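User: I've been going back and forth on whether these two constructs are worth ordering. Before I decide, could you fold them both?

Assistant: Sure. I'll take them in the order you sent them. The first construct and its structure tokens:
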Amino acid sequence: QLQLVESGGGLVQAGESLRLSCTASGFSLDLVHIGWFRQVPGKVREGVSCISSIDGSTYYARSVKGRFTIYRDNAKNTVYLQMNGLKPEDTAVYYCAAVHEITTVQAMCLEHFESDYWGQGTQVTVSS
């Protein structure tokens, strides 16, 4: 079965950190481009950060740039999202998605491409 599984969400206070994990089963993550997206009920889904499988290039939304870091561990078939300096406005359900072909990581995060796989999501709640 081909699937993505997110983990690492939770409840933290503003200023604290979390690390989200996106682990694949049934396929290798180093063959796909990976993006982290987040959604708050009633709001449009936002592309937070994306990473290329070809050259490791990354993209960050302006709202998280400088605070979040996306990186791969191909040996563990996992992509991480390190989130530092969390703010209440980062509260959302975070999803990872995989795409086989893109033009740029920015285009992936802007959802110019339909993702091939989605995880089930992990809740991140940041209290003030």
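The second construct, handled the same way:
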Amino acid sequence: QAHVVESGGGLVQFGGSLRLSCAVSGISLDYYAIGWFRQAPGKEREGVSCISSSGGVTNYGDSAENRFIISRDVAKKTVYLQMDNLKPEDTAVYYCAADFVPQRRSGICNINGDYDHWGQGTQVTVSS
């Protein structure tokens, strides 16, 4: 059974940094694209970033471009989201999700796609 668990959220000041972790179990990152999403109160869920099952392709939403970096450690079965230069508008619950992809799509990830397995989320709060 697949499990996805986020960690690393917290309170940070404007301009600060956080690194979120997404630990998966019951699945292999070699067969799953991983996405990071966020949802702020009163707003729709937003795709932040994703990494393909090959690990060679990453995508970012407009809000994350040039500030966030997604990476992974296959051996540790963990995907990271390094967030720098954080702003109050980054405040949200951040979710990690895993999407099974066939081999022919190993070089694809979609921050707006449907994902199979979701974590419970981790709160990120950026103070001004």
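Notes on the second construct follow. The chain has no helices and eleven strands. The radius of gyration is 14 Å.
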